[in-house]
Amino acid sequence: xxxxxxxxxxxxxxxxxxxxxxxxxxxxxxxxxxxxxxxxxxxxxxxxxxxxxxxxxxxxxxxxxxxxxxxxxxxxxxxxxxxxxxxxxxxxxxxxxxxxxxxxxxxxxxxxxxxxxxxxxxxxxxxxxxxxxxxxxxxxxxxxxxxxxxxxxxxxxxxxxxxxxxxxxxxxxxxxxxxxxxxxxxxxxxxxxxxxxxxxxxxxxxxxxxxxxxxxxxxxxxxxxxxxxxxxxxxxxxxxxxxxxxxxxxxxxxxxxxxxxxxxxxxxxxxxxxxxxxxxxxxxxxxxxxxxxxxxxxxxxxxx
Amino acid sequence: xxxxxxxxxxxxxxxxxxxxxxxxxxxxxxxxxxxxxxxxxxxxxxxxxxxxxxxxxxxxxxxxxxxxxxxxxxxxxxxxxxxxxxxxxxxxxxxxxxxxxxxxxxxxxxxxxxxxxxxxxxxxxxxxxxxxxxxxxxxxxxxxxxxxxxxxxxxxxxxxx
Lengths: 304, 161
What we know:
- Chain A is α/β, with parallel strands linked by helices.
- Chain A has two domains: 3-202, Rossmann fold; 208-289, no CATH class.
- Chain A has helices at residues 21-24, 29-48, 51-54, 70-81, 107-123, 153-173, 191-196, 208-222, 228-233, 238-245, 250-261, 265-269, 276-303, and strands at 7-13, 59-63, 90-95, 130-134, 177-183, 199-202.
- Chain A has a six-stranded mixed β-sheet with strand order 1-3-4-5-2-6, with helices on both faces.
- In chain A, β4, α6 (153-173) and β5 form a beta-alpha-beta unit.
- The longest helix of chain A is centred in the C-terminal third of the chain and has 28 residues, at 276-303.
- Chain A is globular and about 60 Å long.
- Chain A starts with 6 loop residues before the first strand and ends with a helix.
- Chain B has 161 residues and is of the alpha/beta class.
- Chain B has one domain (2-157).
- Chain B is 30% helix and 16% strand.
- Chain B has six helices and five strands.
- Chain B has a five-stranded mixed β-sheet.
- In chain B, β4, α5 (116-123) and β5 (129-130) form a beta-alpha-beta unit.
- Chain B is elongated, with a radius of gyration of 18 Å.
- Chains A and B meet through α2, α5 and α6 of A and loops of B.
C-alpha cells in the first residue's frame, strides 16, 4: 500500500462540511472546552518555546466507550481552531491506522516512519496549524507489555517504537502539528504513548439529561423533512424515554429514533407521525438485549 | 530535524544521472519556499557542474555525503554505489521543512581527496556552497517560533469561560 493511501482525509478549514460536527456531539461542555483549549495552548506554547521548556508533544487523547462522539469531536476540532489562529485557517488530516499495519516483516515500522516523519510533515510544510486524527489508535500503538508472542511481537515493538519516535521528533520540529488520538481500549495502548499525551479526556456515555438533549437534537434535525417531529421534540414526556435510555452511547440513542419509526408501518410511511409511545417501545427494545446481557453477566458472577 | 536521503548510482544509474537527481531533489526541496526563487538553486549549483558527477563516480558522497542546512532543515544526501545501490530505498520527494527555507541556505561539501582543490574552488564561486564542517543541527525554525505565534489571543479571549 502506498503511503498516500493511508491518508483518509486532508482538507483546510473553514470547510462547510465540518461546520456542524462539533455542535452535533452532545457532551458536557467541559469536554469540548478542554479539547479546544489544549489545542490552542499547545499551539501557543510550542510556537514560542522549545520542547525542553514545555514538555508538550502536541498529542491529545480521547477515550471512552464506543459511540460517544470521540471521532466526531476530533474531526470538528480543526474547524473550531481555525478562527483562533493568526492565519484564520487550520488543516485537518485523518489517517487510516489499520492500513499502517502489515504482516510483512518490518513493513509496519517502515510505513509508520515514512508516514509520520516524512509524508505528514511534507503536507504541513506551509506552517498552517494542523490537526491529525489517529482514530482507533490502539491498532498502531499496541501495548508492548501485553504483546502476544504469537503475534510477531518484534514487529509490534518496532511499529510502536516508530510511532513514539515520530511523535517525539515532530513535537519539536513542527510546533503547528497536533495529533488527536482516539480509542475505546485504553488497556491495549502502550504506556509510553499514553504518557506522551498532553491531555487525556474521557468522553463518557451520556446521562439522562444528555440523552434527552441528543433525542431533542435528533428529532429537531429530522424535522427539516418532517416538521411534526419538531413538536415531538418539545414534549415533556421525552424525559421518560431519556430515563429509559440513560447510559447508552449517543450513537445508539440517535438510532433509537429510527428504531421507533420502524416499529409501525405508518411511521415508516410518514415518520412525522412518530409518538412518545413509539419512542418508549423502541427504548425498551434496544435496551432489552443490554439488560439480558447484564443479567447473564450478573448470574455468572454470582456463581463464581 | 535531521534527515537523510539516499540516492542510488552505479549500477542502478550513471554518476551524471545520480547527480542530476540529487540537484533536482535540492531544487524541489528549497524552491517550495517563497524566499527561494525558481531556478536559483540550479544557478548556485552550477559551479559543481561536472565536479558533482566526479564526486559521485569517485564514491566521495557515499559515507559523509552532502549536507544541506537552513532554517529548520538539516539534510544529508548520500549517493551509494555497488551492492548498497541495489538495496537502497529511495525517497526523492521534496524534504519536509523546505517550504520554510530562506535564501541563506548552505550546502556543505565533503572533503574529496584528490578533488579537494577543485571542490574548494567551486565553493568560492557561490555563497551557498561551503567546504567547512556542517553544523551538528539546524538553526531553530524561526518562521514558526517567533513573536507573532500561531494563535490570535484576541480571538482566544472571545471564547470566554
